[in-house]
């Protein structure tokens, strides 16, 4: 009986891990890491070979989701659909992401159980119009922020990893041509959606996303891309990359299918967000077809960046809320000099400030998202929300460690991991100085 490639790969891994000689020679850990990396690459090749984004001849007309109708008042209450999504993701964050976060951080990858549980929710479908198999009926930046916030409460790195395909589907839904939407969006509604992510960041100090050093030039067949991108989520497994590059001096985004491409990739584990499986990707004279350019004349790169900034704000808010929810009971239970340390005025004031800043970040982000959802200008509001979240979420992470004292410095408590993850808000995507 012949085995398929995946079965053969699993058989090899089981045979290696079951050999008792590895323990005696002290080779189990390095060989298991090598086996994992090798089979991961093999699985990626097999998966990419099995999925093909076919160019369609009779594609559906381009679908643009309409904006929501603006209300007379700024209403912060959630509708029934939003409340259902929040409740479902809150359970996922509490029961699945939070328990798996520490091991995922140590191993630097997304656990299979988490991936399976998250796939059952079908997150990318909330970004895809119903014409292409999704459930989206209108623009929903507020819902996107809510999703990011709830997932990040469980773990920021896992949330980023799970939201990467959602962000790509959302961008194609918002700006893709009819052919691009018909070609890619139905795949995001399958039981196993494609791994896709954005490639925006570059390894440049004070990087400005609106002025990418990655370039694209027109050729007879399409475009030729040169440059390097950093912090590409799960780049080693990606089937679709949305890459920003300067085209004739103007920033644009290109859809790149990675199947069959020999891209130069390297793992870039960092101080935090280790489970996001970040990589760097280099493009050396990469030729892509003309239809790889996302959208047409209605594409707005600044809006593209602003929408991404709101998602990152949601991640920062969710993680900051996690810190706050953890330190309050800790400080109420921790005794010093015969009373809870929360009775100390300096401790109480620090916790109060954390709560104030978390709600401030939430209100400013929701306001920007609400304006985007109703089709109004939101660039100013997005910039303000981004600046506040960059500064205050980092401060909240620092204060969370401080409130736990020595416990804040050890892995027994998750606050040290949240601190490391929140540092990314002040350094990635240009950070607080951009």
From TrEMBL:
The keyword Lipid biosynthesis does not apply. Residues 302-428 form the Acyl-CoA dehydrogenase/oxidase C-terminal domain. It comes from the Bacteria. Residues 80-190 form the Acyl-CoA dehydrogenase/oxidase N-terminal domain. It comes from Marinobacter shengliensis. PANTHER family: ACYL-COA DEHYDROGENASE, ISOVALERYL-COA DEHYDROGENASE, MITOCHONDRIAL-RELATED. Its cofactor is FAD. GO terms for molecular function: oxidoreductase activity. Signal peptide: none annotated. This is Acyl-CoA dehydrogenase family protein.
């Amino acid at each position: 009986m012949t085995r398929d490639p995946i079965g053969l790969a699993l058989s090899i891994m089981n045979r290696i891990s079951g050999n008792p000689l590895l323990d005696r020679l002290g080779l189990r850990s390095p060989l298991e890491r090598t086996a994992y990396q090798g089979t991961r690459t093999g699985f990626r090749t097999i998966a990419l070979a099995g999925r093909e984004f076919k160019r369609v001849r009779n594609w559906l007309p381009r679908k643009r989701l309409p904006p929501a109708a603006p209300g007379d008042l700024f209403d912060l209450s959630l509708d029934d659909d939003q409340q259902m999504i929040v409740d479902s993701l809150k359970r996922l964050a509490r029961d699945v992401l939070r328990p798996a976060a520490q091991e995922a951080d140590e191993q630097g990858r997304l656990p299979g159980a988490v991936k399976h549980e998250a796939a059952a929710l079908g997150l990318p479908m909330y970004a895809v119009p119903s014409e292409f198999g999704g459930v989206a009926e209108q623009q929903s930046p507020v819902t996107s922020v809510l999703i990011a916030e709830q997932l990040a409460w469980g773990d920021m790195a896992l949330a980023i990893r799970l939201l990467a395909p959602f962000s790509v589907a959302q961008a194609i839904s918002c700006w893709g041509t009819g052919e691009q939407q018909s070609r890619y969006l139905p795949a995001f509604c399958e039981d196993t959606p494609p791994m896709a992510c954005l490639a925006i960041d570059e390894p440049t100090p004070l990087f400005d996303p609106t002025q990418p050093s990655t370039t694209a030039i027109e050729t007879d067949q399409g475009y030729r891309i040169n440059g390097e991108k950093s912090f590409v989520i799960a780049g080693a497994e990606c089937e679709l990359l949305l890459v920003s590059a300067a085209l004739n001096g103007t920033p644009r985004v290109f859809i790149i299918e990675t199947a069959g491409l020999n891209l130069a990739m390297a793992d870039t584990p960092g101080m935090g967000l280790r489970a996001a499986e970040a990589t760097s990707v280099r493009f050396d004279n990469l030729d892509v077809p003309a239809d790889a350019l996302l959208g047409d004349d209605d594409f707005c790169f600044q809006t593209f960046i602003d929408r991404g900034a709101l998602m990152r704000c949601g991640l920062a808010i969710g993680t900051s809320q996690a810190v706050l929810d953890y330190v309050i009971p800790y400080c109420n239970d921790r005794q010093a000099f015969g009373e809870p340390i929360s009775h100390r005025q300096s401790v109480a004031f620090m916790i109060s400030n954390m709560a104030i800043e978390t709600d401030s970040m939430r209100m400013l982000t929701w306001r920007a998202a609400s304006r985007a959802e109703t089709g109004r200008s939101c660039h100013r509001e997005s910039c303000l929300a981004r600046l506040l979240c960059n500064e205050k979420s980092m401060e909240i992470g620092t204060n969370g460690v401080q409130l736990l004292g020595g416990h804040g410095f050890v892995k027994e408590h998750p606050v040290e991991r949240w601190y490391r993850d929140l540092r990314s808000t002040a350094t990635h995507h240009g950070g607080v100085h951009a």
